[in-house]
Amino acid sequence: MIPVFGSVSISLAAGFSILSIILLSLYIYNGDYRLFLSGRRMAIVVSFLVIIATIILVNELISSNFDIDYVAHHTSLETPGIYKFSALWAGQSGSLLFWLFILSIFSLIAIYQNRNRYHKMMPWVIIVILFIQLFFLILTNFITNPFEPTNADFEVANGLGLNPLLQNLTMAIHPPILYLGFVGFTIPFAFAFAALVTNESGSLWIRSIRRWSLVTWLALSCGIILGGWWAYQELGWGGYWAWDPVENASFMPWLTGTAFLHSIIIQEKKNMLRLWNMILIMLTFILTIFGTFLTRSGVMSSVHSFTQSPLGPFFLSFVVLLLCICAFLIIQNLSNLKSVKRIESLTSRESGFLFNNVVFVTLCFAVFWGTIFPVISEAVQGTKITVGAPFFNQVTIPIGLFLLFLTGVGPLLAWRKTSKQNLKNNFSLPIILSVLSSVIFILFGLRGYVVISLMLSVFVIVSIFMEFKRGVASRVRQFHENVLSAFLTIIKKNRSRYGGYFVHIGIVVMFIGFTGQAFNLKKEFGLSVGEQNHLGDVNLKLVKLWSEERPNHFSWIAELLVSSSDGNIITALRPEKRIYFHLDPNPDRRQPHSELDIYSTFNRDIYSVFSSVDTENNIAFFQIMINPLVRLVWYGAYILVFGTIIALWPSDRKKLLV
After folding, report:
1. Res 652: pLDDT
2. Which of 279, 308, 505, 605 gives 627 a disulfide partner, CB atoms 3.0 to 4.6 angstroms apart?
3. Quick check: 458 and 434 in contact, CB under 8 A?
């Protein structure tokens, strides 16, 4: 009986969303404030109904109610509790309800935060949010209902269980955080839409969503990084980014969202790039919907995507509709979006931000084209032309290195115009040190893009260090503070600026980690107990091989003793070869899965995958990789998060009046 309440909740939510849109539209037409209050309250009811429906589905998943088709397909009695909960976003209909759940939470927050502000824009903001909610409610009500009963002539005693690849702690965290980023861009988009409709295209709407945008960008960044961590820890191919279509679907809005965050600084400070900002935020939101289309339509083959479904045409139609509406509004408001001020010099910080944004959008287009080209080629020629990692690396590495260069250039430029003397003073030390470092790298035998990447990393770090040094020196001279106190004070007084510098440092550290891929080593071999093999300067000996039966899988476990070339023991690795649903009488239901083991240090990872086992001859087959500098990718991510939190942290202006 309880699942019926869930289905009724999303049905009522769809009906109330239509009524709320009508009431708010009538308020805009005749100005009767009672209509606005009724429409806003009804929008709140819509969000609460979605939240209730989500709680009901979670309850059915945890209690293993196999009378619901979604529960039967994505959980089983053996599935651990945490993965029963994460099954909410493991399948098509559940993930759409989860999207709605997050959007409803954001809707409630946005309505509450702005209940006494932006009276002209808020009716339109709520209408836009309701319109997007209605789209997803139509899908969950009529196309893929998460409360659909199981279609079987017998009582279902057990479910199919969760995909073994998803039975990983990271996958219980990564999708929700990624969704926070995807769905979160709805709020800035709604404000941008409202600003266009109400002719409030100045800095007001920017101020209203700046913090929203930064929080959303942080969530999307964390979601992407956690996805890379999951791929590295679980998929067993030794990498964290494969230019998979669904990976690209999250990367594209991150690129345009990053460009938007840089661009709104110019609009806030100089009232410039108004048209550019409108285009960027609308493009970012549309790319989140397009990414959802790629994930759920089945047009792309990916380990991350859902199976073929009827949702593709609906999402694609929604994307086209959004594009048309946004283009119409922007064209209609072109005169209002023109900036009075112009960039005065190419050697200004404004031009640096603009170049930065152009490169971000160029990179986004390159990724977009490489992602959709196989679909276009199949539609036009009938043959799908695969676009893999070599294409993306060839195109994106030069663009990425140029972006890295611009990251260091920006802090060295002044607003409006940088004088020749300032250019000389600001650029001399970073250029000299980066050139000297490149010579050292070449002497150590490094070549190609590796040298360029490391040289540019030195350039950026020195540039940012100089910015901190100038700020600290100024405080020390004026207020006679010690260096540490001055350092903390400049950050407190300008959190967004120096928080951004920490983010840039994090990006640089990640780039150094990315560069380590040029030195990866890989080898596959089989071992009997007591035998050994080697890779690079590492020896690996199989000392033990045994099996265990566990609640939801059967596992072969190998113990590999890892030692250096001089015989010193480094560690012991225990990769596993698991068989999920091993007791199922149907062999097709049994799912093999390699649970890898990694020994990680600052300078390299020793990565072991148990590929298969020959039970007759007692031989285990392994894939071993040595991946240098991988930890720097994760360390850089920590610094990025730290910098963003600094930028988000509210200022205590009373304490900062020095």
Report:
1. 60
2. 605
3. yes
Beta bridge partners of 527: 620
End residue of a domain, out of 166, 181, 216: 166
Separation CA 527–CA 621 (nearest Å) = 6
* Structural domain boundaries enclosing 498: 394-518+639-656
Q: Which of 517, 39, 431 is nearest to 238 (CA)?
A: 517
Question: What tokens appear for 530 in the block?
Answer: 């007591």
Contact indicator for 105, 183 with CB cutoff of 8 Å = no
**Separation between Cα atoms, residue 156 and residue 77, nearest integer Å:** 11
* Pairwise CA distance, residues 291 & 304, whole Å: 12
SS3 category, 621: strand
Give the Cα separation of 321 and 579 in Å (integer).
Answer: 46
Q: How much is the pLDDT for 308?
A: 54
Co-location of 115 and 228 in the same domain: no
Q: Residue 616: which residues within 8 A CB-CB, separation 6 or more?
A: none
Residue that finishes a domain, picked among 138, 166, 194: 166
My answer on whether 100 and 200 are in the same domain is no
| 8 Å CB contact between 26 and 3 | no
Same domain (yes/no): 546, 585 = yes
Residues 6 or more apart in contact with residue 300 via CB below 8 angstroms:
245, 246, 294, 371, 374, 375
**Distance between CA atoms of 66 and 73, rounded to whole angstroms?**
8
Share of the chain above pLDDT 70, in %: 96
Least confident of 100-109, 121-130, 412-421, 493-502: 412-421
* Mean of pLDDT over the chain: 90
Phi, psi dihedrals of residue 532, rounded to the nearest 5°: -140, 160
Show the DSSP H helices in 63-91 as ranges: 69-74, 81-86
Task: Look up tokens 């409709």; give the residue.
Answer: 197
CA-CA-CA-CA dihedral for 412, 410, 177, 605, to nearest 10? -70
Same domain for 355 and 247, yes or no, is yes
The answer to the question of residue 293 being in a domain is: yes
- pTM (2 decimals)? 0.93
Farthest-apart Cα atoms in the chain, separation: 85
Q: Which 8-state DSSP code applies to residue 620? A: E
